[in-house]
Write a structure and sequence with these properties.
heterodimer, A: 392 residues, alpha/beta, seven-stranded mixed β-sheet, 12 helices, 19% strand, elongated, B: 291 residues, mainly alpha, two-stranded antiparallel sheet, 11 helices
């Protein structure tokens, strides 16, 4: 069978219209390709005649665009590999929510009425909290590939994610850092106008308490801030053993640079927002000693990861980041779920995603737990000589 | 001590931004809301010159200055001059400058994408000093120096030179100025050029100071720039410097004594208090206009 797969980026409204079906069928799954979304065989041998329509909502422009771009690359790489593999053909449509939850809601509405089998995304937890209920209501499964805030999968039984929550990664990070550096007093800093960093802060606060580390001061800032000198000076005055920071990368780079400039040489422990090669590229020397937990270990030598690194490098001439790895894994997991029952009906995918267990992926042995959250080992990294190394 | 210096340095950035802003606002009585876009565009152009062009920062700065001046001429020509005859020219100019700013930012995004950009490491000497136990970087000292120098230089220009006299005459009464032989269009254009050139330099220095340049960097500082102008007194260049420092110190004070979430409450509260006590701003002259 010939496989065809087109990926329509950003302004694919026309293609969406073509791919759309009667809007009256928005509940329960059957689309224009009615009846052809169930095939024969199972797993590897599964063959589905119709094209499986998938929608992805990513932040390709706006504040989170650097994440969305990585995700787009990861998805497209996975899509290309799946097209090669054959048997099941995916029609993946990627749309841009412009880092605006309202736009994400509109796109979710559109995908739901277009009859997609599953929606991937949106990029930010902020948008997920607002857009996911639309899919839940319509019975369309959603796979978040970067939502790490608490409560996203609590929206309903159609909402899944392959991104480890901050709640899963942070306790491990804090425990290991505490042991490594003998932390007793720390200062916590976070931007309190963003759902992701706020939930990261809560996870840090809980983990620090768990480990018996004293928080001598908690300092808040805004995600758009770039001058942190006054805040850092204040932090410095309580002479902490480490700075614990929950911030997006845009704030993380100037914060780390300015901390070192003011002579703060203690370890800086960051949330998931710090988990970005940009940190070393742009903060340079200042990034040394930054500790960050990650869902994906770029150095992992499992065969899936090695193949991914190679394919990504060949396609884009750059190293992938965690966002690309999770996006890539996401589409592979969707394929796994579709093949499990050899059906791309919405309810079938929903049921199969829930049963994913010990699937070898780029992220390691991957399972979906009873809360529809990702379950796989995390890794604690520290920046050494301009690279993430495993903290041991 | 460190906090005092932090406040002074944040403040001098505000001042640097506001000095260019207030030149057009206070002297020509036009609010140019494309100024923040010039601020961002110049930082990106500066980074491009250093990163791709391989220029040193010292070579890039004059080019950015010229780039800003040209942008200023364009802004004046496109967003302000066509509207000057209208009865609502002030308001119309304000709106059309917002529109132009939107287009500029869209162009930037098209050219550079949405990512945060930075000057390559080492493009500015990483020199640090210790002053009374506090850390000060060379770039901060340079920014403070440039702010002071610009303030003095511009004040001299506005009060003593022919061009400055022309500006003030245009501000007072464009028709009378024309009768007296002032080339109103040219004076207006030159004022815009100088204003934007200053905004451009401010953008580059700001990006170096915080190691970050974003499309929204101008928008983030815009309101503060306006506050500084109001606090200092519209059109007063020393006022812009003092207003900037005051705002910077108020923010740092808020962080230190009240809590970081209160920074904007304190900073903008200061604005209201000053407006109540001294509506013309700290160094502003009460303007009396007769019809």
């Amino acid at each position: 069978m010939r496989t065809k797969l087109h990926t329509v980026a950003a302004a694919g409204a026309a293609a969406l219209l073509l791919a759309s079906c009667g809007s009256g069928e928005s509940d329960g799954g059957d689309s224009a390709a009615s009846g052809t979304l169930t095939g024969e065989g199972s797993g590897e041998s599964c063959t589905i005649e119709g094209e499986v329509p998938l929608g992805a909502v990513l932040s390709l422009t706006g504040a989170a665009a650097s994440y969305g771009e990585s995700q787009q690359r990861g998805l497209q790489l996975a899509a290309a590999e799946l097209a090669e593999q054959g048997g099941v053909t995916y029609d993946l449509t990627i749309e841009d929510d412009q880092t605006d939850p309202r736009q994400a809601i509109t796109l979710f509405d559109q995908f739901v009425s277009d009859g997609v089998s599953l929606i991937i995304g949106p990029t930010l937890s902020n948008a997920a909290v607002q857009a996911d209920p639309i899919a839940q209501e319509a019975g369309v499964p959603v796979l978040g590939i970067s939502n790490t805030a608490a409560g996203v999968t609590e929206i309903g039984d159609y909402i899944f994610r392959d991104s480890l929550t901050e709640q899963a990664v942070i306790p491990q990070t804090v425990a290991q850092a505490t042991e490594q550096f003998g932390l007793q007093d720390v200062v916590v800093m976070y931007s309190n106008d963003d759902a992701f960093t706020e939930s990261g802060y809560e996870a840090f606060a809980a983990a620090l308490e768990e480990e018996g580390v004293n928080v001598s001061e908690t300092i808040t800032f805004s995600k758009s801030d770039t001058d942190f000198r006054a805040l850092l000076t204040q932090a410095q005055e309580s002479n902490p053993d480490a700075l614990v920071v929950s911030a997006l990368i845009e704030a993380a780079v100037p914060l780390v640079t300015q901390a070192r400039e003011l002579g703060i040489d203690v370890p800086i422990i960051g949330g998931n927002g710090f988990n970005n090669p940009t940190l070393m590229a742009d903060a340079g020397e200042a990034a040394e000693g930054v500790v960050v937990g990650a869902a994906w270990n770029s150095a992992s030598d499992n065969p899936e990861n090695q193949a991914f690194l190679e394919a990504y490098e060949a396609e884009y001439g750059a190293q992938p980041d965690q966002f690309a790895a999770q996006a890539y894994t996401g589409l592979k997991l969707v394929d796994h779920a579709v093949r499990a029952n050899c059906s791309a009906e919405r309810d079938s995918i929903q049921q199969a995603l829930g049963q994913i267990e010990d699937v070898p992926t780029v992220l390691g042995e991957f399972s979906i737990d009873e809360n529809r959250d990702a379950d796989h080992p995390a890794v604690v990294q520290v920046v050494e000589n301009g690279q993430f190394a495993v903290l041991e | 001590m460190q906090q005092l210096l932090n406040g002074i340095f944040i403040g001098s950035i505000y001042a640097l931004f506001a000095i260019g802003f207030t030149l057009v606002f206070g002297i020509l009585d036009r609010l140019n809301l494309a100024h923040p876009a010039v601020f961002a565009a110049s930082a990106f152009v500066g980074i491009e010159l250093v990163e791709r062009g391989g220029l040193s920062l010292w070579a890039a700065l004059p080019i950015v200055f010229v780039f800003g001046a040209v942008l200023g001429l364009v802004i004046e020509r496109v967003a302000f001059r066509p509207l000057k005859g209208r009865a609502d020219a002030h308001f119309a100019g304000l709106i059309s400058s917002i529109a132009l700013a939107g287009m500029l930012i869209a162009l930037l995004q098209w050219r550079y994408g949405p990512d945060t950009r930075r000057f390559p490491p080492g493009s500015f000497p990483d020199t640090r000093f210790e002053v009374f136990g506090a850390q000060v970087t060379l770039v901060q000292v340079v920014i403070l120096g440039i702010s002071l120098a610009l303030m003095v230089g511009l004040t001299y220009m506005v009060t003593r030179t022919r061009l400055g006299r022309g500006m003030r005459a245009v501000a007072e009464n464009p028709t009378a100025a024309r009768v007296l032989g002032v080339n109103v269009d040219r004076v207006t254009a030159v004022t815009f050029a100088i204003s934007s050139a200053l905004g451009a330099v401010a953008g580059v220095l700001f990006a170096i100071n915080v190691n970050t340049a974003q499309l929204g960097m101008g928008a983030a500082i815009e309101l503060k720039g306006l506050a500084v102008i109001i606090v200092g007194g519209m059109g007063s260049l020393p006022g812009a410097l003092i207003g900037g420092l005051l705002l910077g110190l108020a923010e740092v004070f808020a962080v230190q004594h009240i809590g970081s979430s209160w920074v904007n409450v304190i900073a903008f509260g200061l604005l209201f208090v000053i407006l109540l006590l001294r509506p013309q701003g700290l160094l502003g002259a009460r303007k009396v206009r007769e019809v």
